[in-house]
Amino acid sequence: MTLPSTYADRNCSLARSLEIVGERWTLLIVRDAFFGVRRFGDFVTQLKIPRAVLTSRLKSLVQEGVLVRDDGATGGVEYRLTAKGEGLWPVVRALMHWGDTFYSPSGVKRAARHDQDGGLLDHEGRCGDCGLVIPVPEIRIEPGPGFDSTDPGHDPVSDAINTPRRLLEPITASRTR
Amino acid sequence: MTLPSTYADRNCSLARSLEIVGERWTLLIVRDAFFGVRRFGDFVTQLKIPRAVLTSRLKSLVQEGVLVRDDGATGGVEYRLTAKGEGLWPVVRALMHWGDTFYSPSGVKRAARHDQDGGLLDHEGRCGDCGLVIPVPEIRIEPGPGFDSTDPGHDPVSDAINTPRRLLEPITASRTR
DNA sequence: AGTAGCAGTTCAGTCAATGAACCGGGTAGG
DNA sequence: CCTACCCGGTTCATTGACTGAACTGCTACT
Predict the structure, then answer these.
(1) Which of A64, A83, B30, B66 could lock B61 by a disulfide, CB 3.0 to 4.6 Å apart?
(2) What is the mean pLDDT of residues A44-61?
(3) What is the per-residue pLDDT across B8-24, written as a single tens digit (0 to 9) for each?
(4) Residue spans per domain, chain B
(5) Residues of chain A positioned with their CB less than 8 A from the CB of B124
(6) Torsion sign across C-alpha atoms B36, B40, B46, B49
(7) Where in the numbering of this chain does the HTH hxlR-type domain appear (chains A, B) (predicted)?
(8) pLDDT digit string, tens, across residues B115-138
(9) 3-class SS at A95?
């Protein structure tokens, strides 16, 4: 899966995409990046992913141009989504919608709103108020009716993610800067 | 990944979805099912997936209600998408679109049309002619400009898949019934 | 110097994937 | 009735990937 063309089908863009984001953990890393996670350690605590696996996934995501790694202004290492990475939002949205539909009887686990006018976004990412498809940086995400708030967050990163916030806004919770 | 809740995050429908369709090969099996593949042996020849893995994937997809297994009218075993399985079409479409966008400079590898009026479907599945989102059984799929027809199909199943056809229509190519 | 936080590595144990050979039931032909 | 073939599925030895815990090395602060 890591190597190019592990799936034989050269004529299928689905297979091609899965070469990049089809491995275990990869899409969850991307989701966290949408939610503002940027630091190696924050991915580890949020996802409980083995550090070695995270290293390998971040490396290939950077190589594929889904993330950029830079030693950021804050002094530490940061991983951020590129435009190509942001292009995965419809994929993440579609999977979340399918999961909400078939595995969350009490309603969506997370709702998306248009940050500018507060309108609810439908499953296609279209704002109920202004009718437009909202670009990623203008989307605000918040807990929905299906969100389970018993068993509350155990770490500041999860807490930050579960608070209404705009996508891509960096998480600064644990860091007092 | 096979077990429930291998991904810790209970409050994320993305993680929940990936429990079901996030394993290696699973979405490719689903894609083939959309393209009309129904037989064990056809999945093997089309995907070149190890038979043991296919057995295991089909079993869990049936268990999750994405596929149904029945000993069909034709006499053989058949795997078909359920409504829940058809609900994965937006996921498959989103991943194909991302792959087309970033890995297929010469254009989409497969185009989708509204079978009724011949209108091209956009990346949201909306018909350019009638403006509606087209339900899966009314979608016709055909090779697009990015399709590589050198290195032609080596097996009748691939040939059938690469011929314009409606989704879900069973492949009967190799079988002379 | 001394400590703390963080990105990333190392390593041994475990579990899943791979590919090729094999099994057994059903059907068709002789 | 016997044989050959097709097909779904299993078995098995090998290889490779994932896991979790401990460790390294760098930087900043005291």
Answers:
(1) B66
(2) 96
(3) 678 899 999 999 999 99
(4) 13-85, 88-166
(5) 124
(6) positive
(7) 12-107
(8) 999 999 999 999 999 999 999 999
(9) helix
What phi, psi does B35 have (nearest 5°)? -80, 5
Q: A154: which residues sit within 8 A by CB, 6+ positions away?
A: none
What is this model's ipTM? 0.92
Kindly identify which residue of chain B lies nearest to residue A48, measuring between CA atoms.
B8
pLDDT, average across residues A102-113? 96
The integer distance in angstroms from the CA atom of A56 to the C1' atom of C8 is: 10
Nucleotides on chain D that have an atom closer than 7 A to a protein CB are 7-12, 17-22, 27-28
Q: Does B132 contact chain A (CB < 8 Å)?
A: no
Q: Residue B71: its pLDDT value, please?
A: 82
Q: Under an 8 A CB cutoff, do B14 and A22 touch?
A: no
- B47 residue type, one letter: L
**pLDDT of res. A152:** 62
A13-85: CATH topology is: Arc Repressor Mutant, subunit A (1.10.10)
A109 pLDDT above the threshold of 50: yes
B162 touches chain A (CB under 8 A): yes
Nearest by CB to A92, which of B14, B22, B109? B14
pLDDT digits (tens, 9 = 90+) for A14-39: 999 999 999 999 999 999 999 999 99
Arithmetic mean of pLDDT over chain A: 90
What is the CB-side half-sphere exposure of residue A145 using CA atoms within 13 A? 7
Residue A133 CA to its chain's centroid (Å): 18
Continuous segment of H or E residues that includes residue A89: helix A89-103
Contacting A residues, span 52-71, partner chain B, CB-CB under 8 Å: none
Footprint of strand D on the protein (CB under 7 A): A 2, 23-25, 48-53, 56, 75; B 6, 39-42, 51-52, 55, 58, 69, 76-77, 174-175
Query: DSSP H helical segments within chain A, as ranges?
Result: 13-21, 26-34, 40-47, 51-63, 83-86, 89-103, 156-161
Q: Is A11 on the interface with B (CB under 8 A)?
A: yes
- In this prediction, residue A45 carries a pLDDT of 93
Inter-chain residue contact B14 with A28, CB threshold 8 Å = yes
- Residue B35 pLDDT greater than 90, yes or no: yes
- CA distance linking residue B47 with residue B54, whole number of Å: 10
